[in-house]
Design a protein that fits this description.
By secondary structure, this protein is of the alpha+beta class. 23% of the residues lie in helices and 37% in strands.
Length: 83
């Protein structure tokens, strides 16, 4: 799957120490996918990162553009133990 990163997403990956490998894993094979509650163009993709203490990485992508655009990504503390 092709994707692109917004400038914000690039900055966030660097600031939060999120590897491209983890990001791509969640984009391509999410454990859970949810629509955004406010913006219908956005989709939340979530997956556990075993190498990071099984924390849940949430990647928000704009699915209405081709290729999909990563808007942001973060480790979601509210999802701990749920996936």
């Amino acid at each position: 799957m092709n994707y692109e990163l917004s400038q914000h997403a690039l900055d966030i990956l660097r600031e939060r120490g999120i590897s491209r490998e983890w990001l791509e894993r969640v984009i391509l094979q999410p454990v859970l996918t949810k629509p955004d509650s406010v913006d219908g163009a956005l989709e939340h993709r979530l997956g556990k990162i075993a190498e990071f203490d099984n924390r849940v990485l949430r990647v928000i992508v704009n699915v209405q553009v081709k290729p999909v655009r990563v808007v942001t990504a973060y480790f979601d503390r509210t999802m701990k133990g749920t996936l």
